[in-house]
């Protein structure tokens, strides 16, 4: 028997319409390249989005067409975030930090019809433009610092009336490529329904918990897993939005000047911003929560934010393939009376699956997968399913490497899950170090290294070894206080927590750890530099080992 409820499609047009009708006065603030702030309200955004829909129609955009953006986090990018999917086309934000060769492959595979380019990137876009000229109509550009470019002209010439006509919630709305930390980037094609449901899930009180009173700052780029869904979640909640543009000179200033209450970004962003935020503690008093994900957040940094700055850290785990939110680490009511060290330990875990996400811990057997217990000890592959998890990659036939026969997505992350359902990522399967047949978790070693006050950054990689298969090597960035005994000190610290064979064979001291296009430690680059090009390692600007034994 069917229920008697409306067949009401879950589309992004509903989010836009609700946000702009109920919260028309809410503000979108953008940091412009010249350092000034551009502001307008949702009502203005709404009118511009409708004009943009008419512009896109005039330019020949049809349902299902992929429309790329090559842009930073700005109000125009936000307009494209709504106009493209709401008229039935597919928004494809390009990762501006990928190489022109990678981007050429991606644009060709996506068969993008148009590319919207932010004036902040016009120069670097040239290298790509030459390569994709033959297959794409390229349309420049967004409003530059002092001149109105054609984007603004087209908008002002367009009609402001447009009626959304997107009825099928299963239509594609966005295409995002993984950042390719391990392996080549792969396309993930979201639907209106998946993004709508992810938005509702993200806005629950125990998930991101955004409210109408918030001012939300997504530092996470709009090309990284749809800025973690924040452009949609913030507007559905009716929050003000602050967009940091291409290169904010000071995150602390931006937070202070615009009264940000919730900000989101990868751990490296928060590690770098910490000293400045600490100095400006009095000016950032409204900041109540920082959403962190993409990489493990070191417990020492969680503690520093919570105790020194009074900012709650929401440590989340997710993947482009999961729209991206999968789990979130928050203390439960029953944890409140635990000793502080125990609290930081729990918060440094990746957390419980958010409502709507199902997880299992699996070990591969000869005839499929065996489920492992949630006892906090058994290590297995994390597998997921949810209304916002991909069931295949764009233009790639599903293979058993990524999707199981019984309908689960294989995350490629190795993890434990405890009896309360808290996930702890041990490593990516591809990053797990295997020494003498035993697994060593690079994340666990890095977490302990980062507890030392003289260690700023740490990355542990497995170097091929004739006898053991692989051996761990730690690459670290120290503060100026570190002296020549630092290797021995670090070794001692690790020995107190880990078996002897886990202790890295070598500590290499560098000025900076190479980062991926979304700001994670680039272990592939580190490995290549350590194993392949030893001389390049010595010469490299960011990777110059210093003599500390
Ligand atoms: P890529 O796989 O190319 O890096 P994503 O940005 O989608 O692209 O990365 C997803 C991966 O990032 C996860 O599979 C996991 O390995 C890692 N990750 C995300 N959040 C966390 C976290 N909080 N702690 C540890 N690892 C994380």
Number of individual domains? 3
Low-pLDDT windows of residues = 533-549
> Which cofactors or ions or other ligands sit in this model?
adenosine-5'-diphosphate
Q: What fold name stands as the CATH topology of the largest domain?
A: Rossmann fold
Main sheet summary: 9 strands, mixed
**What does the radius of gyration come to?**
24 Å
Q: What is the overall shape?
A: globular
At the fourth level of CATH, the homologous superfamily of the largest domain is ANL, N-terminal domain
Account of the 3D structure:
By secondary structure, this protein is α/β, with parallel strands linked by helices. The protein folds into 3 domains: 234 residues, ANL, N-terminal domain (Rossmann fold, 3-Layer(aba) Sandwich); 71 residues, Luciferase, domain 3, CATH 2.30.38.10; 111 residues, 2-Layer Sandwich (GMP Synthetase, Chain A, domain 3), CATH 3.30.300. 30% of the residues lie in helices and 24% in strands. It has 16 helices and 25 strands. The chain has a 9-stranded mixed sheet, with helices on both faces. Helix 7 crosses helix 8. The site of adenosine-5'-diphosphate (ADP) has 22 residues, from strand 13, strand 19 and strand 20. Adenosine-5'-diphosphate (ADP) binds next to strand 13, strand 19 and strand 20.
């Amino acid at each position: 028997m069917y229920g008697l409820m409306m067949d009401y499609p879950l589309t992004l047009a509903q989010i836009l319409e609700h946000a702009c009708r109920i919260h028309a006065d809410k503000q979108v603030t953008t940091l412009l390249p010249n350092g000034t702030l551009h502001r307008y309200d949702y009502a203005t955004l709404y009118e511009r989005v409708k004009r943009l829909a008419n512009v896109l129609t005039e330019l020949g955009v049809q349902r299902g067409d992929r429309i790329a953006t090559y842009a930073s986090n700005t109000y125009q990018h936000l307009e494209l975030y709504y106009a493209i999917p709401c008229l039935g086309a597919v928004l494809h934000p390009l990762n501006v930090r990928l190489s022109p060769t990678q981007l050429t492959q991606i644009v060709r595979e996506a068969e993008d019809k148009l590319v919207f380019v932010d004036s902040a990137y016009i120069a670097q876009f040239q290298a790509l433009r030459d390569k994709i000229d033959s297959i794409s109509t390229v349309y420049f550009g967004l409003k530059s610092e002092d001149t109105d470019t054609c984007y603004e002209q087209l908008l002002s010439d367009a009609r402001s009336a447009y009626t959304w006509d997107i009825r099928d919630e299963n239509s594609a709305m966005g295409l995002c490529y993984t950042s390719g930390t391990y392996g080549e980037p792969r396309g993930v094609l979201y639907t209106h329904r998946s993004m709508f449901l992810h938005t509702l899930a993200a806005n629950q009180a125990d998930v991101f918990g955004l409210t109408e009173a918030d001012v939300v700052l997504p530092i996470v780029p709009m090309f990284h897993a749809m800025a973690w869904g924040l452009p949609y979640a913030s507007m559905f909640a009716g929050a003000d939005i602050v967009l940091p543009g291409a290169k904010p000179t000071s995150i602390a200033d931006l937070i202070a000047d615009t009264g940000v209450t919730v900000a989101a970004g990868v751990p490296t962003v928060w590690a770098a911003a910490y000293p400045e935020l600490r100095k400006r503690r009095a000016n950032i008093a409204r900041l109540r929560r920082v959403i962190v994900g993409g990489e493990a957040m070191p417990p020492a940094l969680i503690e520093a934010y919570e105790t020194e700055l009074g900012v709650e850290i929401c440590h989340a785990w997710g993947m482009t393939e999961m729209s991206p939110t999968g789990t979130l680490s928050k203390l439960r009511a029953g944890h409140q009376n635990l000793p502080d060290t125990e609290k930081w330990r729990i918060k440094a875990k990746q957390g419980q699956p958010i409502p709507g996400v199902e997880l299992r811990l699996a070990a591969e057997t000869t005839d499929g997968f065996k489920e492992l217990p949630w006892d906090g000890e058994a290590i297995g592959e994390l597998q997921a399913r949810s209304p916002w998890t991909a069931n295949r990659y764009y233009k790639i036939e599903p293979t058993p490497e990524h999707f199981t026969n019984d309908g689960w997505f294989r995350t490629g992350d190795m993890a434990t899950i405890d009896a309360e359902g808290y996930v702890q990522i041990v490593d990516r399967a591809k990053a797990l170090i295997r020494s003498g047949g035993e697994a060593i978790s690079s994340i666990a070693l890095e977490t302990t290294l980062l507890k030392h006050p003289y260690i700023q950054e740490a990355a542990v990689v497995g170097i091929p070894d004739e006898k053991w298969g692989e051996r761990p090597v730690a690459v670290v960035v120290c503060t100026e206080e570190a002296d020549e005994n630092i290797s021995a000190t670090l070794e001692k610290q690790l020995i107190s927590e880990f078996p002897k064979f886990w202790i890295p064979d070598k500590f290499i001291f560098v000025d900076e750890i190479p980062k991926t296009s979304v700001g994670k430690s680039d272990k592939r680059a580190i490995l290549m530099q350590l194993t392949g090009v030893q001389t390049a390692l010595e010469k490299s600007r960011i990777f110059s080992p210093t003599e500390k034994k």
